[in-house]
Amino acid sequence: MATAFVTGASRGIGKAIALSLADAGYDLAVSARTVQPGEIRDNALTVHHTDSRPLPGSLAETAAEVEARGREALIVPCDLTDRASVEAAARRLLDTWGGVDVIVHNGRYIGPGIMDVFLDTPLEAYEKMFEAHCIAPVILTRALLPAMLARGGGAVVTITSGAAWLVPPAPAGQGGWGLAYAVGKASGNPLVGVLHTEYAGRGLRVFNVEPGFVATERNEISVRDYGRELVGAAPPSAIGATVRWLLDSPDADSLLGTTIEAQDLCRARELHPAW
After folding, report:
1. Which label site among 73, 82, 195, 227 has the fewest CB atoms less than 10 Å from its CB?
2. CA 231 to chain CA centroid, nearest Å
3. Is 275 within a domain?
4. Tens digits of per-residue pLDDT, 234-248?
C-alpha cells in the first residue's frame, strides 16, 4: 500500500493534504510539533508581543481522522528548526515503514519575523526560517530518497508561497509579509527543480505547489488579529485535492518539476466541486 509523509499536518493545509491522500488509499505519517489538543507554545508572528493561545488541531486529531478513513496513521513529532528532531523523524520512518512513497514538505517555522517589518526582524528569524524551509526538507529528503528510488520511484511535493518571489502589496502586518518569511520560502524552492533534473529518469515525480490564500485555522486567527476579514480564501481541502491529483494523475506529467498555482489548477480541473 502507498505511504505518504506530510509535515505540518496538525492543522491547515498539511492536515487537508493528509486526509485527501488517506481518501485516495495512502497510509499516512503525520508530523508537526503539536501532538495533543490544547498544547501551548508562543505562536506570535512578531517581536512586539507573545501569543500563548492554543491553536486548533493536533497530530492526534489528524491521525484519528486518517484512521477513521480506514488507513494507518503514524504520528511523528518533529520540530523543523531542530536538526536532531528532523533526523529522528527520518529514522522513525525508515525503522517503522522502511521509507515512504511520497514526501510532502508543508511544515514551516512560526514565529517572529513573519509579520515584522525589516528593521524589526531579528537575525535569528532568518536562521529559523532557513532551518525549517531549507535544511529540514534537505535532511528528510536525503534520508528518505534512497529507499524511494530503490523501489522504483516516488514523489516529493513542496508547499511554497508567492511570498518567495512577489513584491509585498503592503508592509508586514498591513497586508504584506516580513522579509524573513520570504527568504525562508525562497530557500525551499530550488529542491524540486534539482530533484527533477537529477532523478526524473528514475521515477521521481516532484512539484512545487503555491496554495495562495487559504482559510486555515491560523490564517483565520491572524487575519482577525490584524483587523482584516478572510475574504476569497480557498478551503484547505481544495489544496488537498490538488496535491492528490498531482500525485496520482498521469495528466500531471506535463507539470513535473514546475511550480503549480494550486487554486487555478483546482478550478480548471474541477478537482473540488464543493468549492
Report:
1. 227
2. 22
3. no
4. 999 999 999 999 999
At residue 39 the predicted structure's pLDDT band, cuts being 50, 70 and 90, is very high
Average pLDDT over residues 38-51: 87
In a domain, 153, yes or no: yes
Task: Give how many domains the chain has, as a whole number.
Answer: 1
Q: How buried is residue 198: exposed, middle or buried, by Cβ count under 10 Å (0-12/13-18/19+)?
A: exposed
172: helix, coil or strand? Answer: strand
Q: What pTM did the predictor assign?
A: 0.95
3-state class (DSSP) for residue 86: helix
Distance CA 63, CA 182 (A): 31
Please name which of 158, 155, 160 lies closest in space to residue 145, comparing C-alpha atoms: 155
Q: 78 vs 23, 39, 75, 91, CA distance in Å?
A: 24, 14, 10, 12
Torsion angle defined by CA atoms of residues 175, 178, 179 and 183, in that order, rounded to the nearest 10 degrees: -100
Confidence tier at 231 by pLDDT (50, 70, 90)? confident
Domain with 26 in it: what CATH number? 3.40.50.720
Residue 221 resides in a domain: yes
DSSP strand pairing (259-261 vs 204-210): parallel
Amino acid at 211: P
Mean pLDDT for the stretch of residues 118-128: 97
